[in-house]
Amino acid sequence: MAAQGVNGNPPRIAILGAGAVGQLLCHQLTQAGARVGLIARPGSGQADRVTLDFTSLDNSRYQHSVALLPQDADAVKDLDLLLVCVKAYQVVDALTPLLPRLAADCQLVLMHNGMGPYLTLLPKLAGRGLTLATTSQGALRQGQWQVTQTGPGLTQLGWIHGPVMSEQHRALLLGAIPDSQWCEAILPALWQKLAVNAVINPLTAIYECRNGELRRESFRPLRESVLQELIQVAAADGIALDAHALGERLASVIALTANNYSSMHQDLAHGRRTEIEEINGFILSRAALHGIAAPTNLRLYREIKRLQALSGQ
C-alpha cells in the first residue's frame, strides 16, 4: 500500500536525498501545505513515517510527520514532482532505477552542487520534464531527522529539458521556498554558483580553514585565477559571465558564510568522497573539450584528489 501523506492522501511530491537540504525543503514544502514524502534508500528497513525535527533561523522549532516511500512502483508511480537532493556524484545511480517506475509526466528537479549529471540523465528521461535548481540556503544536519537552518539564501530554478513545469507546481515551489525565483535561463545561474563553489570548496579543504579566511589578500591571486579560467570556459560553452559581478558575488558569499566550513572541507574531514569531479572537474572537462588550458583549476583538482586518496576515498 502506498505511504500516506497529509489527510491520509498519498504524497504527490517526493524528495530523494534526506540530507540537510532535502530535509530543509521538506519542511518548507510541508509548511506550505504540500503533500511531501521522502524516498527511503533500498533495504533501509525504515518505518513508514518519520518525525522531522526542524529549527528555523529564528530558533522556532517544528516537527513534521513525514511519509517514507520505498522505491517501488506503488509508492512512486503517482508522483507529480521528484526533487533530487543527493550528492552530485550520486544523481545518476540514484535516479536510474527509479525512472521506469515514475509517471510519464512526473517532473524532475535536480538540486546539487556542481554541474554535469544532467547531461548523463537526458537520454534516460523518456520525455519527462527536467528542471535544474540551485540554492545557497544553509542547513546543518544535527541528527538523522534533525536539521537546523543556518542561513538564508537565494534559490533559483529553471527548465532545461522536456515539458516545462506546470504553473501550478512552479507557484507551489516559489511560494514555499523563501527568496526563490524562476530563471528562464538557468545555465548562467548554475555557472555563477559553480564559480563560487570552485573557489570556496577546494581552497577551504586544502588549507583547512573556514570560508571567511579566503578574504585574506594572500588568497586573492588564487581566487581571481580560478574565476578567470572559469569565465573563459563558460564563454566557450556559450555562457557570458561578468568578471566584476562574479567577483562581488564570491565576496558576498564568503562574507555571509564566514564562520562556515565548506561541504568539501567537511567531506575530507570525515573521510567522505567529495564533489570535486562535478565542480573543478567539470570546468576541466569543458576546458578540454574546447582546447582551453585551466592550470589553476587543474592544480586544485589534483590536490583534492590526492587528499581524497589519503582519506581512503
From TrEMBL:
EC number, as in UniProt:
1.1.1.169
- Where in the sequence is the signal peptide annotated? none
A GO molecular-function descriptor: 2-dehydropantoate 2-reductase activity
Q: In this protein, which residues make up the domain named Ketopantoate reductase C-terminal?
A: 186-307
InterPro entries in the record = 6-PGluconate_DH-like_C_sf (IPR008927), 6PGD_dom2 (IPR013328), ApbA (IPR003710), Ketopantoate_reductase (IPR050838), KPA_reductase (IPR013752), KPR_N (IPR013332), NAD(P)-bd_dom_sf (IPR036291)
Alphabetically sorted, this entry's keywords are: NADP, Oxidoreductase, Pantothenate biosynthesis
Catalytic activity reported: (R)-pantoate + NADP(+) = 2-dehydropantoate + NADPH + H(+)
Biological function: Catalyzes the NADPH-dependent reduction of ketopantoate into pantoic acid.
Taxonomically, the superkingdom here is Bacteria
Q: Which Gene Ontology BP terms does the record give?
A: pantothenate biosynthetic process
**PANTHER family named among the record's database cross-references:** 2-DEHYDROPANTOATE 2-REDUCTASE, 2-DEHYDROPANTOATE 2-REDUCTASE-RELATED
- Any one GO cellular component localisation term in the record: cytoplasm
Biochemical pathway: Cofactor biosynthesis; (R)-pantothenate biosynthesis; (R)-pantoate from 3-methyl-2-oxobutanoate: step 2/2
Ketopantoate reductase N-terminal domain span: 13-158
- The protein, known as: 2-dehydropantoate 2-reductase
Instruction: State the similarity comment.
Output: Belongs to the ketopantoate reductase family.
Organism, as annotated: Shewanella salipaludis
